[in-house]
Each structure stands twice: as structure tokens, then as C-alpha cells.
Amino acid sequence: MTNTDERLRAPTGPRNQWKTLDKDLGRIVSIEMAAARLSRPLVAPGLALLFVVVVAIAALALIGASGSSLIIVGAAVIAAYMALNIGANDVANNMGPAVGAKALTMGSALIIAAICETAGALIAGGDVVTTISSGIVSPEVVADSSTFVWLMLSALIAAALWINIATLFGAPVSTTHSVVGGVVGAGIMAAGFGVVDWGKMSGIAASWVISPVLGGVIAAAMLAFIKAKIAYVDDKIAAARRWVPVLIGVMGGVFATYLAMKGLRRIFPVDAGTALWIGFAVGIASWLAARPLIAYQSKGLENRKKSLRALFALPLVISAALLSFAHGANDVANAVGPLAAVVHTVQAGDISAQVAIPSWVMIIGALGISLGLMLFGPKLITMVGDQITKLNPMRAYCVALSAAVTVIIASWLGLPVSSTHIAVGGIFGVGFFREWHAEKRARMLGLQKGKVVPADERRRRKLVRRSHAVTVAAAWVITVPFSAILSAGVFFVMSQFALN
Known about the structure:
- By secondary structure, the chain is mainly alpha-helical.
- Helix content is 81%, strand content 1%.
- The longest helix is centred in the N-terminal third of the chain and has 52 residues, at 12-63.
- Keywords: Membrane, Phosphate transport, Transmembrane, Transmembrane helix, Transport.
- It is found in: Membrane.
């Protein structure tokens, strides 16, 4: 072999070694990436489990270790699980439209909602909560305190499990109805069918229709007004300067009334007349403040519909934040109300129709809702805001405002409504109105141009996904009966365990 051949072959060994090392490193990197992909879905459940464990430890430290205290600790764990599920499912109705309209990013929406939910629960959450879901089951018929405790725990477990299942299937459901169903099922198992106030239950069943229809009609009417007065006039910018401040004033007045009636009862008592005057004053102030703001924002905007969206972005963000505050103030009781009832019954030894909520119980609900939103909320936020129908700031603004208006109207009329059903019904109302309006304009343009759009083509232009409508409606209908059946089963198992 010549020297030349040796020089040519000498580097071959090191090059092959580096090549082998690169392949080995590449395999290690691939394994690490695969492990990261597998472990990432476990992060959220792991953090949720950690929260539940921390709640158990904190409750044990506050109450002390004893036989009766362990029941309170168990109830605190279940309430923490319930709060996580409320955050994952219910809060999406407030933030979904703003995210779907691109007025907020997902991260910003989660942060704003978490802050406002926590503030609403801690600042304006109720001092007192009814123990058995607004009198659906009378406490007098459940005279034994231990039976009452098992009833409340069964209702809480069943409601939390149902909301968890609904979240997995991407269906926004009413947490209030879930708790009611749980109480009814456990109450029937404890004392028979006569224990339930079926008149109130029929009102709840009626709300399955009343809530979404009211929300949808009001949202559609608002969108029709915006289209008629702003979007489809010749000088859109001038119309926006005239009417957008009015709409912001309406928003300010409506939300001031809404919060006074629903979210500020803990701070000071407010009757309907006082709430209306508060709303009127705030509405006038909002209108006056919005006029120069909208005039400034509209400078240089092109005279087209797309330009109008920027004027509704800030009002939409504010309305979403206010809805989250009101939700935290009102719906935290769904998570901690049964826990407060258990704490009172175990410590006092009697059953009361209304009980005070201890501060530590309210903190569990507030933090649980916020954490559940941060960990599991994006799925439902995306579905509500983007997958039912396409939203922009104007349409999402109509949905948010209709939610507050509908609750106020229903409260004055004494109608049982669900905030979840109202918000989702508002989205469907906006979508179906868009379909009707687009169909109407297509027919008019077709007649003007001598062209008629075939029926098959019109069907392909539907702007609302019917599959989501069927899924959501089915989830609403089965919420109470499913929670009731599940709660009855849980109560039966618990009562058998207690007897043994």
C-alpha cells in the first residue's frame, strides 16, 4: 500500500465515529421529544391534583384531625374538584366571544378572566348561601344531619363529574342545573319523590328554552341595529361616531345595573329601583366619556365595515371582564355552597336553610375556578368563540351585552334563566341572524342581476354549525336527569357505607 493510499484512508475512521455519534445523539433527542409530547398532557391534571392535595392539607390544618373533621376535609376536596370543573367549563361563555373575535389572545383572556373571577368571588361573593339549591328540596324533610351531609356530598360529586364529562365532550353546560340535578337525585333517594318541589323544577326545565331564546333574540336584535345604523349606511365612520358612544353608554348602564343587582349584594344592599338609577347614571357617564374616545379612534379609518371592528374591541374586552367578575360573584356558590352547608352541619350539629360561607371556603372556590380556567379552559373557549359561528368584535359585543340584558330582564320578570344558556344562545342567535341576513341580501342581489342562487348552494353557505347546536342542546337537556341519576347512585353507595 502506498503512502498516498494511507493518507486517503486515515481520516475515514474519525469521520465514521462522528457520524455514529451524531446518529446516537439524534436518537436521544427524538426520545426526549417523544417523552415531552407524552408528558405535556399530564401537566394540567398534575397541577389540578396538586391543588386538590393542597386544599386537603389546608383544610386539615384549619379544622384539625378528628372523625367529623375528616368529613369536612373530604367535602373540601370535592368542592375543589367542582371549582376546577366550573372554571374549565362555565367561564368559557364569558371569554369565548372575545377570543373568537380576536379582540383578546387566549393568554390575555385567561389572565383577565382569572383575575376578575377571583375578584368577583372574594369581593362580591355572597356571605350567605341557600343550602339546598334555592328550596328545590326542603331541609325539614331531611331531619337527620348525617343524611343531609351525605346528600350534599352526593350532589357535589355528581355535579362535578357531569361537568367534567361535558367539558371532555366540548359542551358548555349550566353548573347551577348540574347542582340542582344532584340535589334532586340524592333527595329522592333519601326521602322519596315527594321531597322535591316539582313546581320549581318545571321552572328550571322551562329555562332550557327561555334562556337561549331570550339571549339569541336580544343578541340578534342588537346586531340588526348595528347593521342598519352603522355597517350598511353610506358614511360608516360618521354613523359610528354617532352610534358607537350610545352603544357604549348602553353597555355601561346595563353592566352597572347587572353588577348592582347580581354582584354587589355583599358590599351593600341594592333593590331593583336603586340598581336602575345606578345603571342610568353610569350609562350617561359612559356615553359622555366615549364620545371623544370614539372620535379620536375613528380618525383616518377607511369607510368600510372592517374598519368598524376596531371601535368595538375595547368595549368587548371590558364587557368580558365584567361578565367574569359577575360570574365569580354569583357562581362560586355552586362550588362552595354544599361545602359551606356540610361545614355548618358538622360543626353546629343542625340543618339550616341558609348558612354563612367561611372565608377559607370562599378562597377554595375562587382559586379553584381560576386554576381550572387556566389549565382546562382553552378547549371550551375555542369551541364557544370560534367553532359555532364566526365572530368579529361587533358580533361578540352583541353576545356579551345580550347576556347582561337578558339576566336583568329575567330577574325583573322572575324567570328562571341560566347564564350559560344565555351566552351560548346569544352566539347561535347572532349566527342564525347572519344566515338570514346573508340569504336576504343574496336574493336581492340575485334579483337585481337576474341570477338566482340554487337551493343547494344556499344550503352550503350556512354560517352556523348545526352539529354543535345538536351537541349543546342534548347536553342541556340531559344535565339535570344525568346529574340526578348519578347523585342517586352516589348517595346509595355512601349511605350503605355509612350503615356498615
